[in-house]
Every structure is written in structure tokens, then in C-alpha cells.
Design a protein that fits this description.
There is one protein chain. The chain is mainly α and 143 residues long. It has helices at residues 37-50, 56-89, 93-106, 111-123, 127-140; strands spanning 11-16, 19-24, 28-29, 34-35. It folds into two domains: 11-74, no CATH class; 79-140, Tetratricopeptide repeat domain (Serine Threonine Protein Phosphatase 5, Tetratricopeptide repeat, Alpha Horseshoe), CATH 1.25.40.10. Helix content is 62%, strand content 11%. A hairpin with a 4-residue loop joins strand 3 (28-29) and strand 4. Helix 3 (93-106) packs antiparallel against helix 4 and helix 4 (111-123) packs antiparallel against helix 5. The relative contact order is 0.09.
């Protein structure tokens, strides 16, 4: 049975059979989640040194699943802030705040969602809480 756990910062979690892998986000670039060949080779070598039974075919499957997971994670991360801002733009501030609070509770590392929450709170007249959301988002930001 696979455990639900959070990926370390800068990684996504990919499962291959009973093996759970922390795959670096640095393997991907662009909105279409393209693989960076040199990074993939380096990661593949690292995996095969740790798990010598992994075949080249298994590595290909792992990378295919990693691409799918990265697309899913990016969609999930964007969904929070985008949906919250859409609700706020339609004047549904309390719905936006509620949505964004739930989203950041489930995705505490989502900087964009923290900023969107700060915007919505300030628009709703809750400046102190809004500024706190901005500060928290800024504390998570890593260029």
C-alpha cells in the first residue's frame, strides 16, 4: 500500500511498483513539462546506482510517469490561485477566501495561492490578515 506523503521541496513523488521516488523538478522545463536530457541521464545514473535492478526500460517508464505527475502537480498548484482570483474578480470575495484558505491548507508551499489569498483578504477589508498571507507567501519564495 502506497503512503500519502508530501514531496520534499523541489521534488515530486513518483511510484514504480513498490518503489517510491523523489524526482527532482529540475528534470523538467517549460509549461509543456519537457525533460532536460542531461538532467535525466544524471538522475537515471543515480537511480541505477541505488537500485541496480532497474532496467533502462524501467527508467523510461519512471520518466514517463514523472512527466504525467509533474503535469498533474503543476495543474493542481495553478488551480488554487487561478480559481481564487477568478472568484474574486466576479465579486465573490468570501467564496474566494474560503477556496484559497482550503487550498493553502492542502498545499502550504503554493506561493501564488498565498499571494492570491492576501489580495482577496485585502479586497474584503481584512488588511492585517491579508498582509500576513503576503508575508507568508514571501517567506516561501525561492527564486
Amino acid at each position: 500500500m502506497q503512503q500519502n506523503r508530501k514531496a520534499p521541496i523541489g521534488h515530486i513523488i513518483v511510484h514504480h511498483g513498490k518503489l517510491t521516488l523523489n524526482v527532482p523538478r529540475s528534470l523538467f522545463h517549460g509549461p509543456d513539462v519537457e525533460l532536460i536530457p542531461e538532467e535525466v541521464v544524471r538522475f537515471g545514473e543515480q537511480l541505477q546506482s541505488r537500485y541496480p535492478w532497474l532496467s533502462n526500460n524501467a527508467l523510461s517508464i519512471i520518466m514517463e510517469n514523472a512527466c504525467k505527475e509533474m503535469r498533474r502537480v503543476l495543474w493542481e498548484e495553478k488551480r488554487g490561485a487561478v480559481a481564487g482570483r477568478e472568484l474574486a474578480s466576479r465579486g465573490l470575495l468570501q467564496e474566494s477566501i474560503s477556496h484559497l484558505r482550503k487550498h493553502v491548507a492542502d498545499n502550504p508551499e503554493d506561493v501564488d495561492a498565498w499571494y492570491a489569498l492576501g489580495e482577496a483578504l485585502c479586497k474584503a477589508g481584512e488588511q492585517e490578515e491579508g498582509y500576513e498571507a503576503f508575508r507568508h507567501g514571501r517567506s516561501l519564495f525561492r527564486p
